[in-house]
């Protein structure tokens, strides 16, 4: 049996931040202290900060097909691309997915914890074709009725190719349960993507679940959307996604709409490969759904599914928001691919139509934070809303609003399209911090009142927070948290 262990953290950290004093309108001081760690202290001023961090802007190529991270496991029909996600509404089930290349093979998962006998669950197998590509046998198996806060081991494959992994179930849902989410978007499969994932895995804050903000493999950037790049991506992220759930959001690179080559059905590769527990939240499609996890209620929205009045997504969200019981899950998080507030030129105003439909609800129901990807950069906003405008009045500028969410864009996973470096000038008042660097985020829920967000750029040491912010919970502690930025 092949026993895999999570790739060991790279702890002999030698990378170091490179800073320069910048010359934008606000005054600030950047001091870099090398102390084994690299600490980046920035004094932030009122008009928002555009970071002057200096980095190489070169495009990064996709890792070649023979890269170590894409290696196919040894053995006939060996399970590959193993990944897990939450399997029900509360976190007591897990969907285990994997692919066998040669034949359907064994679709059972054997799993156990320290205190339980071996149990077996049977999965389903699906396949699809895309132009001249034929997928392997895609297995999805729900294992449920798991005990909370428990390490489980699981095995996929049979005989020589049995492969063992593990995961830890979340604590039971409740208001005082700390939990740490990682945030990665627009990852792709370049050398930078690999750095982002390594950086996330090595982060001392230890993310327990990834909220994935959309745009996975970027296979559609290849001729005929070469779906082989969906497989390589699945093998690349296995080292994390087989051990902790990745909560999936569909981005534009998941649409794979290509009628010119006979592929008119949107989302075909994505929906076959990445199952999500949308039924459990009364959704009728995998692009919008919700989960509870520890003290968080996470709503996933589909930027590329209809959201106008009367559409299924609209009706679902309208019924969903009143169901959120903040005394049970204080932290209301929304994730979607396309940001509503974005002061980069890339994708500027693309999120406007959905913002117009849903923003008033986010303010009414006091969403704590909205995470997005899509723009290949980082940005964090004030708590702002732009719901006053009604076409005929002149109130069309976003205003600070303590009932509104903080909007954070983390579309900087590192894909082959490169960074979005061009910003709209001047920086809007609502934009607190923006920087075009690859990296990842951590949302660290401490208790019912406090959560700490940090953004980690790839160039820095693993413990460095290039930007960070304390969020006060909008239900239990709706105090003004706009000045709670820490260095
Ligand atoms: C449980 O399953 C694992 C993996 O197949 C196997 O190695 C182990 O011997 C089994 N334990 C028992 C008690 O059957
Ligand atoms: C699919 O078609 C492309 C170009 O038309 C070709 O390069 C590739 O080898 C084909 N792949 C398969 C699996 O037939
Ligand atoms: C959990 O247990 C119940 C009762 O035994 C069963 O009906 C249900 O299918 C189980 N759920 C899962 C996901 O295994
Ligand atoms: C990807 O990152 C891992 C962990 O740092 C490293 O072992 C591996 O060699 C890297 N692969 C490539 C192709 O960069
Ligand atoms: C989700 O609901 C559909 C339609 O009701 C059903 O066919 C499907 O089996 C359900 N899936 C799960 C995982 O419960
Ligand atoms: C909300 O959750 C709390 C804490 O779990 C519970 O006591 C209360 O009954 C719930 N309210 C509703 C309306 O379900
Ligand atoms: C919640 O966490 C914050 C930050 O760690 C801490 O300052 C505060 O005292 C905690 N509140 C309670 C009630 O423990
Ligand atoms: Fe995108």
Automatic annotation (TrEMBL):
Lineage at the top is: Eukaryota, Viridiplantae, Streptophyta, Embryophyta, Tracheophyta
What is the reaction catalyzed? Answer: a phosphate monoester + H2O = an alcohol + phosphate
Q: Does the keyword Metal-binding apply?
A: yes
What Enzyme Commission number(s) does the record list for this chain?
A: 3.1.3.2
Instruction: Give a yes or no for keyword Signal in this entry.
Output: yes
Occurrences of domain Purple acid phosphatase C-terminal (ranges): 404-461
Q: Where is the Purple acid phosphatase N-terminal domain positioned along the sequence?
A: 79-169
What positions does the domain Calcineurin-like phosphoesterase occupy? 180-378
The protein in question is named Purple acid phosphatase
One Pfam family for this entry, by name? Answer: Metallophos_C
In terms of InterPro entries, this protein maps to: Calcineurin-like_PHP, Metallo-depent_PP-like, MPP_PAP, PAPs-like, PAPs_C, PAPs_N, Purple_acid_Pase-like_N
Cofactor requirements of the protein: Zn(2+); Fe cation
Keywords of the record? Glycoprotein, Hydrolase, Iron, Metal-binding, Signal, Zinc
Q: Indicate the secretion signal residues.
A: none
Question: Which domain of life does the UniProt lineage start with?
Answer: Eukaryota
* Family per similarity comment: Belongs to the metallophosphoesterase superfamily. Purple acid phosphatase family.
UniProt organism field: Malus domestica (Apple)
Molecular function GO terms recorded: acid phosphatase activity; metal ion binding
